[in-house]
Design a protein that fits this description.
It is a single chain. By secondary structure, the protein is of the alpha/beta class. It contains 17 helices and 14 strands. The protein folds into 2 domains: about 10-60 and about 365-480, Alpha-Beta Complex (Aspartate Aminotransferase, domain 1), CATH 3.90.1150.10; about 110-350, Aspartate Aminotransferase, domain 2, CATH 3.40.640. The chain has a 7-stranded mixed sheet with strand order 2-8-7-6-5-3-4, sandwiched between helices. The radius of gyration is 23 Å and the shape is globular. The mean pLDDT is about 90. Pfam families: Aminotran_1_2.
Length: about 475
Amino acid sequence: MGRLNLNNINPHVRAAEYAVRGELAVKSEELRAQLSKGTTSLPFDQVISANIGNPQQLDQKPITFFRQVLSLLENPQLLEKEDVLINGLGYKTDVVERAKWLLKHCGSVGAYSASSGVYAIKESIAKFLERRDGFPANPANIYLSAGASSGVNTLLHVLAESPKSGVLVPIPQYPLYTATLSVLNATCVPYYLDESKAWGTDLEAIRASYEKAKSEGVDVRCIVIINPGNPTGASLSEADVRAVIDFASKEKLVIMADEVYQTNVFIGQFHSFKGVLRKLQQENPGKYDDVELASLHSISKGMVGECGHRGGYFELVGFDAEVEAQIYKFVSIMLCAPVIGQCLVELMVNPPQPGEPSFELYDKEYNGIANGLRERANALHKAFEQMEGVECGEPQGAMYLFPTITLPQKAIEAAGAEGRKPDEFYCMRLLEATGVCVVPGSGFGQREGTLHFRTTFLAPGTEWVSRIIKFHQEFMDKYR
């Protein structure tokens, strides 16, 4: 037997759970492999990975402007044939200009950048934040990261002083938070979102979780907010955001605002924590000056969907300079975020503007993706509304729906006989019958006695939705 076995590796890694790429995802890949080898024994001809927000795996096309610029960054020799690019390959002049500008500032995308990112890109992000929020941003407080996940990892590492360090995490939540806290051997302090209020934050629930953890000797030091929500798709009102900032200010909690879905909002509008904090500071001089806020954004979501390029950033507001120096050091240990990902972040925050040569196509592609997401979200929601025992709020944002399912007692018993949770059992049967892979609610956390699943609405077409409806009817009939 080798030196390492399951019993002697880091127990905190062993204890971590990450459901969106868990057992169901592994099974779906096995089924996909069988199909690619030409099997005809399965009751479906394609696997739909509705388990993970991975737009380009599900046929979302990359935005032309972004990829054209990247092609020149990867192969700058093409710039020697500008006439061919423009007259022969349909590149616009602003593509060429942007590529030259980025190359001037990062040299080669094959070279490391400064630890926290290319400074000119950080300036571009700061200008974007100022346009978005109406308040200035300082490039020195912006850190580029390999997707928002890497930023979360950095911040939680720095926050977690001991096993008693607690972080308030929304339930249901994206399992990155619980898994990372598990690996760090810190304490996750769950607070439940309110399903009856479209999965909004419930300040009483937050306060109750906070007080309970404190009474158990946990040093609660941070609150995570995912807005728009994952897995719920909820989009917080300005009043909700204000209430959270006020609570964090009173209790001296760092706010971690995961805002990677900020452009994925169907109902109402996105309210950034930074913008609302600056407003509160303006309205109440001195009162909110010591609030510490880290907000994160990414190229993986929105209409960009460039998950594989691993680009993102976080902005720090109100952090102690010495702590920020330690965050910089931590980021430096990983050297820097992928430079091509950093360039994509720049393109996301500074896309073609009206009147510029690439704008018309960019606008058409961007809105095409946005409208497609909205249409599919609504089609899926309509399907859930007609399914027995399924309840689902109107799609509000992000890339997900998180319906409640009520299963017959016999199904719950059959799940128990397999040693599975009822929602896992349902999702496994759904995958085997339809090829559609979703994630059971238990992978995100849910109130005791409730069952859910999370599905993305990224897959093209609606044929797969009718497969779910048919499966659900047959499942319910079988286990009555």
